[in-house]
Design brief:
Glutaredoxin, 4 strands, globular, 45% helix, alpha+beta
């Protein structure tokens, strides 16, 4: 009985420690990165006005790793808190809307690709793919954002 209680307590502690760093989005969508709803040009103007950088997520609708970023990484609370304060974040579908035109200026070798840009559109850093393990991806993106941000 005592051994069973100990194992149960240990399992609970381990579960909390594993899942504590990956805070899922709230139902109202306020946890994680809040992506700008506007054109790329408007995003650059907003970044300039607010003295922020731009993070552009280049994706396609068929890309599996892109979906992992959206559902498991971009919802991270710590990543969202930092990115929302320091960056204007843009999700750019490279096959639809203005995506193909933006892709001419910001080409990618694969999906997903993240561009870290200054407010004038100058590339500071790019990151392709999803860092593995996925549980550490938010931390990897946050490290790059802090290193190449303002």
């Amino acid at each position: 009985m005592l051994k069973s209680n100990f194992l149960t307590a240990l399992l609970i502690v381990l579960s909390i420690s594993v899942f504590a760093g990956n805070t899922p989005a709230k139902k109202d969508g306020t946890t994680g990165i809040q992506f700008f709803n506007g054109t790329f040009k408007e995003a650059l103007a907003k970044a300039k006005k607010e003295n922020k950088m731009v993070m552009m997520d280049c994706y396609t609708t068929w890309c599996g790793p892109c979906k992992v970023l959206k559902k498991q990484v971009f919802v991270d609370k710590a990543l969202g808190d930092y990115m929302n304060a320091k960056y204007v974040c843009v999700a750019m579908d490279y096959e639809n809307g203005e995506g193909p035109a933006v892709a001419q200026q910001y080409p990618v070798d694969g999906y997903p690709t993240l561009y870290f840009l200054d407010a004038s559109g100058k590339v500071k850093k790019t990151m392709s793919g999803v860092p593995q393990p996925t549980s550490g991806a938010a931390g990897a993106i946050l490290t790059l954002a802090k290193k190449y941000g303002k």
